[in-house]
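Appendix B, example 12.
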Amino acid sequence: MGNGQEWNIGQLLGTSSAYWRSSTVHAAVKLEIFSVIGDEQLTVEEVSDSVGGKPRSVAMLLNGLTAMGLLKHENKSYKNTDFSRSCLVKGEPGYIGYIVMHHFHLVDGWAQLHEAVLHGKPVETRSHGDEVERESFQLGMFNLAMAIAPSIAAAINLEGRSHLLDLGGGPGTHAIHFCLANPMLKATIYDRKTTEPFARKTTERFGVAGRIDFVAGDFNMEPLGGPFDVAWLSQILHSHSYGECQVLIEKTVQALEPGGLILIHDFFLNDTLDGPVFPALFSMNMLLNNDGRSYSEKEVSHMLSQAGVRDIHRLSFQGPNDSAILCGTLQ
């Protein structure tokens, strides 16, 4: 529950079995149930034929989705709700199935959380295929960033800034929207080579490919280039240890011009590291996969200060899951 609220048996059991609901959604997206139905109203047999399943078990899944409010069941057939039609049908602008599949790929790890806690290190999980997992992660991050990038770009004043570094920018969602909001700005996405096809595709889609370049490399091991007059680090620090974060911030600062602006967007814990709920749970997601964790605003502010950044403050932006933005200026 959190926030000092008392638990009861119903809430505890609901939390303990919450994976039943998520697994139902994962299965439906994996089998493309919502996409198969699309704008139509289909019987169990029609859906079963489309996905190659058995009518008895497909009916159970369809009924579960109906009970959860993601499908409608009328006259022995099923159709999408308005929400499912807009968010869970492939090809729709609001499709978020990629991030749902990314969550599905994390399930094996979460089932071994007790082992990770005992041993203090990531666990081994089954592979769903490098290409499949990469697509789900990259396009899933695009799904999430698209929900907030336009408002972030509108809220941050980059007037007079000319060259932005989007560190670990993946498909470049934030770089794209910063450029759209600032016609004189150009940007560089710095990320691994495997993310470049996603970035090229999205920058072309939004008509800013001529203003955004891509540098392939490992930002933990290689120089960042520059100089830049603004650096954007979105959801980067939580994948690294405290020491690695300090080094990365220092390296980023070295790539900035005097007066350069550094912006860090992440899920921030409170100073006692025991809340809010999402950043606290997200730390365990990092435990299962790498040496990172969620950090507090105080911790990240200290890292920035140690790197020579001044005027460190939190912007008014408040995103989903307690994400926030810290900024500061290189003197």
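The first helix runs from residue 9 to 16. Residues 9-95 form a domain with the Arc Repressor Mutant, subunit A fold (CATH 1.10.10.10).
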